[in-house]
Amino acid sequence: MINEEELDNPVWHALTNIHYNHAIDYNHVKFYQPDYTPFGAFINNADTRLAIEKHGALISGFFIVGDKPLLPAHFEEPKQHKGLQMIVYNKINHPITDTIVELTDAHYNDLIGLIKLVYPEYFRPKSNILGQYFGIYKDGKLVALTGERMQTNHFIEISAVITHPDYSGRGYAKQLVTHTANNIFTKNKTPFLHVDETNTGPVALYKKLGFNVRRKLIFWKITTP
């Protein structure tokens, strides 16, 4: 069995072990560089106030994932986003009936266009560099996509499960999550994801594909004054 300790603080382990070239290190507090994702984390009960002050000069809104951080006195109280961390341990057996393409630099404008329409808050201009992204095209346009974000030594996070509102209900998300998860298994890593616990539709979809809830995880949204 793989030790899942990395998943107890996934942002920290991603920035320490795999994505360190995209990290800003404030000692016991680390953030992704703002162009990559708006996430950070800390360890050892660190005093996060100075790191948040410095990072707030680089990006206006961002998240600390995990324990509640200490904020500078002039910052507003952080807002809680309660998420579920879900994991799947075996290859997903779900039929793929549509053509799935890997999204490269040539597809960047299409990817960003769909992201901005559906899922702008958690995606940054260089988020796609953190892993592979896959999509489905219909009528000459990108209508659904899914990709990889945080990566640790043994795990890769599935992220940006997005379908254009005009094309929802056609099973594209199930196919893309299946394809992305099974591709992660070929890398000898285990897929996991994060989803807001109030998003009951996606939670049910992931459970049907074989994902289990591993734990609850808090995303603390911090807004720069």
What does this entry look like structurally?
By secondary structure, the protein is of the alpha+beta class. 22% of the residues lie in helices and 32% in strands. It has 5 helices and 11 strands, in the order H-E-E-E-H-E-E-E-H-E-E-E-H-E-H-E. An 11-stranded mixed sheet has the order 1-2-3-4-11-5-10-9-8-7-6. Helix 4 (172-185) links the parallel strand 9 (155-163) and strand 10 (190-196). The longest helix has 14 residues, at 172-185. It starts with 9 loop residues before the first helix and ends with a strand.
Question: Secondary-structure map with pairings?
Answer:
Blueprint: H1 10-17, E1 23-25, E2 29-32, E3 39-42, H2 49-56, E4 61-65, E5 79-87, E6 101-102, H3 108-118, E7 133-138, E8 141-151, E9 155-163, H4 172-185, E10 190-196, H5 200-208, E11 212-223
Parallel strand pairs: 3-4, 9-10
Antiparallel strand pairs: 1-2, 2-3, 4-11, 5-10, 5-11, 6-7, 7-8, 8-9
